[in-house]
């Protein structure tokens, strides 16, 4: 028995000894963790539970030249609620008043919010979404609600801030201004946003957050660790009014002709400042929106607008003058085994070189250029290179289309290349590149680089300015310039642009109608065209140049440049002219107008009389008649313009206030 007790005791000693040794090992390990490896483990724990999150800086604003906002960063706030961190006492005391305030802000019953908060408390929800996309004022208001004003720990409020890019003009100029890359927050590549991202993006800030349940993160402090620095502002050359005019003029025509896509550019002649760029593409349901920046990025065969460049080369080299007679045959002529046609049935016969451009004769221009340069095509190509038509303009906006000007040895070169180029085929240009050349014609031969930006600013302090850049100080002789400008005016007066002529203001330019996708097998059954008009206004002292290009208008409604794109050009010119008259002074302000005097003499005695019967207003100016009759209590409807030719209620009938009368004007 004693031996057995001794064995048990020995085993107890062994067990106790092992436990003692284990305790010593644990103690040593604890000391090692605490003092030797402690810093490493603390850093690891901190890393797993807290993290610095990047706070994107507010991007700088993009402005139109008049200070109108084109793009701006707006802070938005999401509010969440940590139902666990709030003490029972605070939750109980503040739940009802908090729910009432929430009810007032979001127009839902207070009982609804009480149920939401209590359910979150019961489920230990630490990341309950309360409100999304709040503006700054609403965020401040909610931050001071009962319970929330106690802060993130006592009040459980979690605030998540982000910036949203907004375009105050909506879809107008959206592609030019640029927007965020799809599925890439904070990444901008296109338009002003992409071109000047280095100025706009600013510097990022930092905010420390702590990991909570379900992999969610909650801010540790109310304030940021590192405050973000806002980006610089970009002041563009865009005129908001002209942009609106261009957008809606293009949209109206695109809808009428059911076109695939189109673009408009308006440029200030002397400075090269781009005042408007509109780009519209059709969706599958027939609506239009700013799909791509066609004006800058799409190079295509320009068609007849290129005839101006061809004619200028021949004039400059003295190969012809404007009176040189060209035989256009009967509208069909063979060049190197291929026929070229004119649009007029039966052709134009023998006409002058100037007339050939006025009526846009394909045969006329092809004949002029082929006869002048077939033995030395490089001489013709050299002019195009001097005018930089073979190079990109070099703007900062991403995606500028590459021009194609083939010459001998190029894969597109053949015997037919030269006559084809003469009327705008077998080469490619973007609308912006074409306009830059027409603008040089308007600018007395000085070619300036199109410019989209005036300056970069930071808090109203100038950071960088962008001045007019001359790329060619004289594209041709004064004689050639004078001749080509006369022809461009005559194109509108009596040539292909005659439907656009207005005696009230002058325009100069060239229509263009080019086949597209003509190499496809179905072209004869489904013909597609590109309509264009490029020019400037007013014709005598040009202020603005403009190009309109519309792709694939419905051939059932029309496809010629004078019909499809010319009216857009005219509408833009008219609206700019009427809303921003180019004449700054009015002569003979005090000079009497006999017509106005006569109208006044007719109106004044009638306006002073007391009427019980409907007066006779026939022969009166429309607006005077309206004023007189409305003052008598009648409701007036007018049809037409001018003076009153007929009135629906004959004079002499009893006057009844509120009665409607219709005036027909002529």
TrEMBL record:
Gene Ontology biological process: cell wall organization
Single GO MF annotation: carboxypeptidase activity
Transmembrane segments: 12-31
Subcellular locations according to the entry: Membrane
Gene3D superfamilies, A to Z: 3.30.10.20, 3.30.450.330, DD-peptidase/beta-lactamase superfamily, Penicillin-binding protein 2a (Domain 2)
Annotated signal peptide: none
GO CC terms: plasma membrane
Primary site of residence: membrane
Record keywords, A-Z: Carboxypeptidase, Hydrolase, Membrane, Protease, Transmembrane, Transmembrane helix
Residues of the PASTA domain: 608-666
Name of the protein described by the UniProt record: PASTA domain-containing protein
Protein's organism: Marixanthomonas ophiurae
């Amino acid at each position: 028995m004693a031996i057995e007790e001794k064995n048990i005791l020995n085993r107890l000693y062994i067990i106790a000894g092992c436990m003692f040794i284990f305790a010593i090992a644990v103690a040593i390990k604890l000391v090692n963790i605490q003092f030797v490896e402690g810093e490493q483990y603390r850093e690891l724990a901190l890393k797993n539970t807290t993290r610095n999150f990047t706070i994107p800086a507010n991007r700088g604003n993009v402005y139109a030249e008049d200070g109108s906002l084109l793009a701006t960063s707006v802070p938005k706030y999401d509010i969440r609620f940590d139902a666990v961190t709030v003490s029972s006492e605070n939750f109980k005391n503040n739940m009802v008043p908090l729910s009432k305030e929430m009810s007032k802000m979001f127009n839902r019953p207070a009982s609804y919010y009480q149920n939401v908060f209590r359910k979150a408390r019961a489920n230990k929800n630490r990341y309950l979404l309360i409100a999304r996309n709040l503006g700054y004022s609403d965020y401040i208001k909610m931050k001071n609600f009962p319970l929330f004003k106690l802060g993130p720990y006592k009040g459980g409020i979690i605030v998540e801030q982000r910036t949203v890019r907004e375009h105050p003009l909506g879809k107008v100029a959206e592609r030019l201004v640029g927007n965020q890359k799809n599925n890439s927050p904070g990444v901008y590549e296109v338009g002003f946003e992409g071109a000047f991202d280095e100025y706009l993006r600013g510097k990022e800030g930092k905010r420390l957050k702590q990991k909570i349940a379900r992999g969610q993160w909650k801010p540790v402090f109310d304030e940021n660790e590192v405050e973000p620095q806002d980006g610089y502002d970009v002041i563009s050359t865009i005129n908001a009014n002209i942009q609106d005019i261009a957008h809606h003029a293009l949209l109206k025509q695109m809808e009428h002709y059911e076109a695939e896509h189109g673009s408009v550019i308006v440029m200030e002649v002397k400075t090269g400042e781009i005042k408007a760029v509109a780009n519209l593409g059709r969706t599958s349901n027939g609506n239009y929106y700013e799909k791509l920046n066609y004006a800058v990025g799409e190079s295509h065969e320009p068609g007849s607008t290129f005839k101006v460049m061809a004619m200028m080369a021949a004039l400059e080299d003295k190969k012809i003058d404007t009176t040189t007679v060209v035989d256009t045959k009967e509208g069909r002529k063979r060049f190197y085994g291929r026929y070229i046609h004119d649009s007029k049935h039966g052709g134009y016969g023998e006409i002058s070189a100037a007339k050939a451009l006025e009526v846009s004769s394909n045969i006329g221009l092809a004949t002029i250029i082929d006869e002048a340069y077939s033995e030395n095509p490089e001489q013709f190509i050299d002019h195009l290179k001097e005018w930089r038509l073979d190079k990109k303009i070099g703007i900062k906006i991403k995606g500028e289309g590459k021009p194609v000007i083939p010459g001998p040895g190029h894969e597109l070169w053949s015997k037919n290349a030269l006559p084809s180029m003469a009327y705008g085929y077998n080469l490619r240009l973007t609308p912006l590149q074409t306009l830059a050349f027409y603008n040089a014609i308007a600018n007395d031969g000085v070619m300036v680089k199109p410019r989209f930006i005036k300056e970069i600013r930071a808090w109203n302090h100038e950071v960088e300015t962008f001045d007019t850049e001359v790329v060619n100080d004289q594209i041709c002789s004064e004689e050639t310039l004078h001749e080509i400008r006369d022809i461009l005016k005559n194109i509108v007066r009596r040539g292909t642009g005659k439907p656009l002529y207005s005696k009230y203001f002058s325009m100069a330019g060239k229509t263009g109608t080019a086949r597209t996708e003509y190499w496809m097998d179905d072209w004869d059954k489904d013909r597609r065209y590109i309509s264009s008009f490029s020019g400037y206004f007013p014709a005598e002292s040009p202020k603005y140049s403009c190009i309109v290009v519309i792709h694939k208008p419905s051939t059932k409604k029309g496809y010629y440049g004078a019909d499809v794109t010319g009216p857009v050009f005219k509408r833009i010119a008219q609206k700019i002219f009427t809303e921003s008259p180019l004449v700054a002074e009015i002569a003979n302000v005090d000079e009497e107008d006999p017509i106005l005097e006569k109208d006044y003499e007719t109106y004044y005695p009638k306006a002073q009389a007391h009427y019980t019967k409907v007066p006779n207003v026939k022969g009166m100016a429309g607006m005077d008649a309206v004023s007189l009759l409305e003052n008598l209590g009648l409701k007036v409807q007018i049809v037409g313009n001018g003076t009153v030719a007929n009135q629906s209620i004959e004079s002499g009938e009893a006057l009844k206030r509120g009665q409607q009368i219709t005036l027909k004007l002529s």
